[in-house]
Design a protein that fits this description.
This protein has 276 residues and is an alpha/beta fold. Helix content is 46%, strand content 9%. The longest helix has 18 residues. The termini are far apart.
């Protein structure tokens, strides 16, 4: 790719949608370098759609260099123009970020989730369930399966790749938005805990409450109220206690199951020995 000087005003940096948020402090450091030595490495851009009103170029790589040029009040910047399409460009951005060790757990999980979606779009022959009788059977030198390709690029196991994607899938979009940039975004155990909150509304609510209280969501968990032991059934009243105490253990399990189904109690509350 040839490097040329292009106007900053002609470039859409797509800052809001980038995997790695712009760190203003780091951009400021680059400003000093730009003023002292100039721009050592060109940014990478691709052509826009060409439609009226659309940007002439779209940033592919070099968000911090672009921002530093803005802060330095440059009007143009060195850039290499790639022939990548939108999906290929996004895939390249994701891959470059995945190799950075400073990515937190949430950002890495999000990157891998999005990478899988793009990879399967670009290489549909690698989807699970595609067989030799499909129209993709004629593809010469098919690409490796997503997990194999991602694991090889990152130097980790396929199991690790699947783990990141499962973690991200369990989180609501609003949850992800709330967690980005917080210490919880790099707390794998806490992210897994949040993902187990099945109710979307409850998941988002608990995360926001935890952030406001500067606590972990798991610290807000309310301990389940235990079901009374055999001796404490009497508190239900003599008549009801007598009925329950006459039941054998299997019948009591049925009763507890009915209470769970009726949402009178939760399964976690059943702690009576032998009754769970």
């Amino acid at each position: 790719m040839n490097v040329k000087r292009i106007k900053l005003a002609d470039i859409d940096p797509r800052i809001e949608g980038r995997i790695r948020p712009i760190n203003e402090g780091y951009a400021e450091i680059l400003v000093g370098s730009f003023k002292e030595r100039g721009q050592d490495t060109a940014i990478e851009v691709r052509h826009g759609s060409g439609e009226e009103g659309a940007p002439k170029y779209i940033l592919v790589a070099g968000g911090h260099r672009f921002r530093a040029a803005e802060l330095a009040e440059w009007t143009d910047i060195n850039a290499s123009i790639s022939k990548l399409n939108a999906d290929e460009a996004r895939l390249k951005e994701i891959d470059e970020n995945l190799l950075r060790q400073e990515l937190d757990v949430l950002s890495r999980a999000r990157s891998l989730y999005e990478r899988k979606e793009l990879y399967l779009k670009l290489h549909p022959e690698t989807r699970d369930g595609v067989n030799r009788h499909s129209r993709f059977a004629t593809v010469a030198n098919p690409a490796p399966r997503f997990a194999v390709d991602a694991a090889d690029r990152m130097g980790v196991s396929e199991r690790t790749i699947h783990g990141y994607i499962s973690l991200y899938r369990a989180l609501q979009p609003e949850t992800v938005k709330a967690l980005q940039g917080t210490t919880l975004a790099d707390d794998r155990a806490e992210l897994l805990y949040i993902g187990k909150i099945e109710s979307p509304i409850e998941q988002v609510s608990i995360v926001k409450k935890a952030l406001e209280a500067e606590k972990k969501p798991s610290e807000l968990a309310v301990a389940p109220t235990p079901i009374p032991t055999e001796a404490m059934w009497i508190k239900l009243g003599k008549k009801e206690a007598a009925r329950v105490l006459r039941l054998d253990m299997s019948a009591r399990r049925v009763l507890l199951d009915e209470l769970v189904k009726a949402k009178v109690i939760t399964r976690d509350q059943i702690v009576m020995e032998g009754a769970a």
